[in-house]
Every structure is written in structure tokens, then in C-alpha cells.
Amino acid sequence: MKTQEEVNGIVTLTKEGEELISHSSLYNEGLRPTTKAEHSWTAYNFASLWIGMSICLPTYAMAAGLISLGMSWWQAILTIILGNCIVLIPILLNSHAGTKFGIPYPVFARLWFGSKGAHIPAVARGLIGAGWFGINCWFGGAAIDTLLMSMSDWASVPGHLWISFFGFWLLNVWVAYRGPETIKKMEAWAAPILIIMSLALLVWALTKAGGWGPMLSAPSKFTSIGEFLQVFFPALTGAIAFWATMALNIPDFCRYAKSQKAQIVGQSSSLPTTMGFFSFIGVAVASATVVIYGEALWDPAAVLAKFSPFAIFLGTIGIVLATLTTNVAANIVAPARAVENLAPRRLSYEAGAIIAGVVSLLMQPWYILENFSNYIFLWLGTYGALLGPIDGIAIADYWLVRKRRIHLVELYKHNGMYAYKTGFNVRAIWAMLIGIAIPFISKFIPGLHLIWDNAWTVGLLISLAIYTWMMKNDASILSQKEYDQITSQAQESRAS
């Protein structure tokens, strides 16, 4: 029986396939495969998604952090661009699965970890997403607080910073609660506004400073290549880890892609360029403030506070937009889906969004942002070491083990081929643990710290190799003949 249909590289369930899984406890409206009509996201939608997510205060702060650690402006920007070019590879590889089969990240994870084991990578990604959600709310709330103080006597209000933070947190949770389609629409119109406002800030800085100021002449603080590499490798891991979360749950968005071409062109043209562009603006503006105000102002809100009330008002809108477009897309969808996947018949995406918002408070973003070392080395570096192995397993399973052949109906069965007898794929768990353990142990062995500094990359490669070897000839792998028996191939037309 044909339970799925493939047209132009997009696989959807047939009516027979839908009937087989519609009553499963692993199935609900948020976790089911997308329909043909829902594959509507164009290259512009993906480009605007990444522009909206990349233009944010943490991007601005990351460039500042690298310079505070001793890098010159061009070393910091190139490190960020290189990191994003590297993380773009797993993003595109995992995007293919989401686009072709229309499944969200927790369902995709059932392939490699099992029907029950999928909670391990889903919750791991969800917790980190919740942490980022809190970080962005703290950034945005603190910026709004600074701007309100510059416009009124807001500083005299008891607990004014916390009021700003919780108010902004509530706004983010409310927008996230409204779902992915609302996110798509918001990103589409916010992206061009954010680009214009970023350019306006850069033009202001150059005009007021009378040129590039001290930026181009500020040297690196490192006196040798060895000193530079000691900071470069963990900084590169931090730059990669910045979007390592999205490398995992990108199927949550690509399941709506119109075609593979749409998601590849949209993402490749926007992620590295926007991250490099906005990081450069952060460096340029901060350097210009040395000339204008006699000190480097790395906080964009502190810069805006020196403007006229009308400019402050516009700048506040920009900061709110920049933080919202990042937060609700990059940081709340994954934890909301992870919560939903825990009990698909009892929990909805909306409930997951609220729970994720509460968890973000418990992770204390104000501590993570206490200094740049916490932010770049503790936060980015540590979770990069956790997510690299999971990324490796995802890529190995789809591309090397299954060769892009999935039985959609079996993903929604407790005792199906992807349940691995106990609901857990023990081989995936071992591959993940080994990929995490080797870099972590290396952190404490003299001479091997370089492995920890590159924990995301090393962990990804180790887990990818181990998982591919351990899954050789597994019973859950579909042959081409078996795939053809369940998949009808409709006459292809030219994909738009």
C-alpha cells in the first residue's frame, strides 16, 4: 500500500497514510507531516527569517566580546563569518530532511533516537532554546530600560530594570504563543526595516566621527600567533555554537519550504552575510563612539540614549523588533515542540510556548550575561560541546545511514521500525555520549585543550563516524525497493 507520495522532491502522506496515524498518541496537529499546500515558504521567507534572527543584540555583543578578548576588528568579524559558514553546512544538511518529508525536529529525532529516545535531543535543544530566550529577553529588557531612563525619570521607579525585563518577556511569550505562521509574517515585514535601521546607525556613526575613526587602526592585542590561537579556537566554537541550536531544529521551519532550492538559496544568501554585516556595524559604531564621546559604547541602547527623544523612540522600536524577530523564531519554537512531543495528545504548541517561557526564567539569563567570559566560553562553548554530537548523529542518520529514505507512517508508531524494541536507539545514545565525553575529558588533560576549544566540530565528527559504523545494516533502514513500495512517484513538474 502506498502511504506517501513524492512530487518534485517533496513527500507527503496519502489519505491511506493519514488514516493509519491520525489516532496515534504520537500524532497531533503540530507534529504531523505538512501537506502540499503548507509547503509555501519561498527563498525570501527564509532570507527574511535569518535576517530577522541575525540582527539582534547578542550578535552585536558577540563582536564586542571578541574585541574585549584582544582581537582586532577584522579578526573578530572574520571569526564570526567563518563560524557561520561552518554551521551553515549542518543547517543545510538537516534542512533537506525537513523540506523533503515535512516533519518537525522532535519527529525527525525519532529516526535516530527512537520513539521515546527522541525526548533526549528534543529536550536538550529545548533547554538551550529556553536559555537563549531568556538571554534575548534580558538584552531587550535592559535596552528598553536604558532608553526609558533617557526619556523620563524612569530611574526613580523601584525595580525599573526588572519591570522592563518582565514586560518584554511577556511580549515575547505572547507573540511566540501565536505560532509559526505569525512568525513568518512578522519576519517578512521586519527584515527590511531592520536592515534600514542598521544602515542608518552606521551612517550616523561615520558622519559624526568624520570617517572610520580609530576602528581600522586599532591593532590586535596578541603578540604572537600562539596567543591569538588560544582565543581564536574557543571563539570560533562560540561563533559556531551561536546557531548550532538552529542546525538541529531547522526542520521546524524547512518543513514549510516550497522546494529545496528555496531553502538553500534563502539560507545561504542571508546567514553568513547578515551575521558579518551586523557584527561589523557593532564594531564600527562602538569605535566611532570613541571619537564622538571619548569612550567605546558597546551597548546600542547606551548609544541611542544620547539621541533626541524622537530618535530614541525609533531606536526603541528597532531594538524591540530585532529582539522579537530573533527570540520567537530561533528560541521558542524548539522548546515548545519539545514540550508538545512529551505528550502530543495532552500538550499543544501553545502550552509548550508558555512552559518554555517559564523555564527561561529559571535559567537566570542575568548570570550568563554577567561578563563576556560567561557568555562566550561558559554558555556558548559548553552547549556547543553538547549539540555538536547530536548534529553529527542527525546528519549521519539521514545522509549516510538511511540515504534520505524515510517511512513517515512508522515515525508515529510506538512499536514501529523506529522504536528500536525499547523505544530507545541505544547506539545513538552511545554515539552521543562518546562525542561529548572525549572533548570534555580533553579539557582537563594538558596538551589536549585544543580538542575542547573545538568541541562542537570534534564532537560532531566523532559521533557521526561512530553512529554510521554502529548502525550498519540496522533493520530500520529502508532499501530503495522497500521505499518504492510505500512511495508513489507522481509525474514531476518544474519546481518553482
Automatic annotation (TrEMBL):
Q: Which Gene3D superfamilies match?
A: Hydantoin permease
Name the keywords, alphabetized: Membrane, Transmembrane, Transmembrane helix
Q: What is this protein called?
A: Nitrate reductase
Q: Write down any Gene Ontology CC term.
A: plasma membrane
How this chain sits in the membrane, per its record, is: Multi-pass membrane protein
Q: Which PANTHER family match?
A: NCS1 FAMILY PURINE/PYRIMIDINE TRANSPORTER, PURINE-URACIL PERMEASE NCS1
Similarity field: Belongs to the purine-cytosine permease (2.A.39) family.
InterPro entries given in the database record: NCS1, Pur-cyt_permease, Uracil/uridine/allantoin_perm
The source organism is: Brevibacillus gelatini
Judging by the UniProt lineage, the source's domain of life is: Bacteria
Asked whether the keyword RNA-binding is assigned, the reply is no
Q: Any stretches that span the bilayer, and where are they?
A: 46-67, 73-93, 122-144, 159-177, 189-207, 227-250, 271-292, 312-335, 347-369, 375-401, 422-442, 454-471
